[in-house]
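Hi support team,

I've been running sequence recovery on a batch of backbones for a student project. Most finish fine, but this one hangs at about 90% for roughly twenty minutes before it completes. I'm not sure whether the input is malformed or the queue is just slow. I've pasted the structure tokens below so you can try to reproduce it. Let me know if you need the job ID as well.

Thanks,
M.K.
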């Protein structure tokens, strides 16, 4: 006789959750459960309602309808601290930190350990406990280091550590691996399994299907604010989830268009920086998508920033249309016909408190003005045109960018630079942290750009993205170009081995 395994106890129960914003129904009668000792993947496009659920569960938003129970007890979160006290902790995609404080101070911000019978912070205990958390994560970061000196990936790890400092029953991970290297992602997966083994419930939000199928026990899929599917992850495959999310197959995500490749329009020769990259040389042709792949720390973003004039190399030359050019600032780069969409959209790509309309037309102020006065009609027209082409989801064009989902923020940043009609556009991780549907829209637009004769440099940590979209792939490792592959030879084995330094191309 086979004994049936008793279901794990429900520790979080959401029933009929609804939330409306002006002109947008973010959630419509959504119900889900999270059980002790399991990982539940929350899947959906940007704008599907995932972020709204997270903000309701963390006390940032108040729902218009529905109920929430934690360990069988009904709860009503008026403020974020209520959620925290109820045992819910969240690791957000874009981690908020205090740059002038230490790692330990950031980890225990809001719940610093105090000395017995004295209302003073116990600094020794705080640093010791912070070190224990970092050791558990196998992260070599000093607890006394200032956060301003940490890399993007290290700051993301800090967000994980902060959540672990609170003995939560439910841990929400919103795109936790977006800025992490392969090794750091492996460490993260170990931590998620530890939490599951300790009986915690984990809500895991990711656009990376390999992570979902590696770590999740169950799935819940949202589309346009509604629940469209849930169940055991073992009962579905990747294409099943994609179809639930967006109603399209996986083959449509990388719509590569064959475009005739023209003459060389841009070349980089001997670009060297004392600490970031060394002796970089490559060419870019008209109508070409040139992919740059490498692990975190390979120097790809640093190279692109130097090309665009944000930083300055020690040596090297740039040649545009056969003429050597000197680019010492982003203004000079824009005048030369270059555009750069940075990886860090929140700090470098957009002005979050400003509206979509103002962000998207910021580089066009001079063109949209007459005798010093801005033509708002033309400004709105340009915004509508670019917003429609990139399928930006917003209540209205004067909505603040900080109120948009991560994917729609990225579309605004891309749209801002494409509105300048550049000849060469550098896309640095253009689909990081955005959903399948948004990725497809960005990829389709890349195809449109090269069909119009533009040239694209695509920097991506997603292997399938560079393989699916690039005509050539350049692989970097530790600040140097270690390999170059055409589409036929750009196999996962070749690219990953070179990027890892295991097999360096001749």
């Amino acid at each position: 006789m086979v004994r049936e395994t008793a279901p794990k106890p429900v520790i979080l129960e959401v029933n009929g959750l609804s939330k409306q914003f002006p002109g947008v129904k973010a959630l419509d009668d959504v119900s889900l459960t999270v059980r002790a000792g399991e990982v539940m993947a929350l899947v959906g496009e940007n704008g599907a309602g995932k972020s709204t659920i997270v903000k309701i569960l963390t006390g940032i938003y108040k729902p218009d309808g529905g109920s929430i129970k934690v360990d069988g007890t009904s709860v009503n979160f008026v403020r974020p601290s209520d959620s925290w006290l109820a045992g819910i902790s969240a690791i957000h995609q874009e981690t908020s930190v205090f740059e002038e404080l230490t790692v330990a101070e950031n980890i225990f911000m809001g719940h610093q350990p105090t000395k017995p019978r004295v209302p003073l912070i116990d600094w020794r205990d705080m640093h010791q406990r912070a070190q224990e958390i970092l050791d558990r994560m196998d992260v070599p970061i000093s607890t006394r280091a200032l956060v301003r000196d940490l890399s993007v990936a290290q700051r993301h790890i800090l967000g994980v550590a902060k959540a672990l400092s609170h003995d939560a029953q439910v841990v929400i991970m919103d795109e936790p691996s977006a800025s992490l290297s392969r090794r750091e992602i492996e460490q993260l997966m170990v931590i998620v399994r530890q939490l599951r083994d300790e009986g915690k419930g984990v809500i895991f939000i990711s656009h990376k299907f390999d992570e979902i199928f590696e770590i999740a026990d169950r799935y819940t899929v949202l589309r346009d604010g509604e629940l469209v599917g849930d169940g055991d992850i073992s009962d579905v495959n990747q294409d099943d989830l994609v179809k639930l999310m967006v109603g399209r197959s996986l083959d449509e995500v990388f719509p590569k268009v064959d475009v005739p490749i023209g003459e060389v329009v841009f070349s980089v020769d001997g670009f060297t920086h004392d600490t970031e990259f060394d002796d970089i040389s490559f060419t870019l042709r008209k109508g070409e998508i040139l992919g740059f792949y490498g692990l975190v720390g390979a120097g790809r973003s640093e190279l692109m920033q130097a090309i665009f004039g944000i930083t300055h190399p020690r040596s090297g030359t740039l040649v545009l249309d056969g003429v050597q050019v000197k680019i010492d600032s982003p203004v000079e780069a824009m005048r030369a016909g270059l555009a750069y969409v940075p990886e860090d959209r929140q700090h470098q790509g957009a002005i979050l408190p400003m509206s979509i309309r103002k962000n998207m037309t910021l580089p066009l102020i001079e063109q949209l003005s007459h005798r010093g006065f801005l033509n708002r009609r033309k400004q709105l027209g340009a915004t509508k045109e670019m917003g429609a082409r990139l399928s930006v989801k917003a209540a209205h064009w004067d909505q603040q960018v900080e109120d948009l989902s991560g994917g729609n923020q990225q579309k605004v940043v891309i749209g801002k630079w494409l509105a300048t009609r550049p000849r060469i556009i550098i896309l640095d991780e253009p689909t990081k942290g955005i959903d399948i549907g948004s990725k497809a829209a960005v990829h389709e637009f890349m195809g449109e750009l090269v069909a119009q004769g533009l040239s694209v440099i695509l920097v991506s940590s997603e292997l399938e993205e560079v393989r699916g979209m690039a005509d050539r792939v350049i692989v970097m490792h530790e600040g140097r170009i270690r390999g170059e592959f055409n589409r036929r030879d750009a196999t996962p084995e070749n690219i990953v081995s070179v990027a890892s330094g295991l097999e360096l191309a001749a």
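--
Follow-up from support: It reproduced on our side and the slowdown came from queue contention, not your input. The CA atoms of residues 129 and 253 lie 44 Å apart. No action needed from you.
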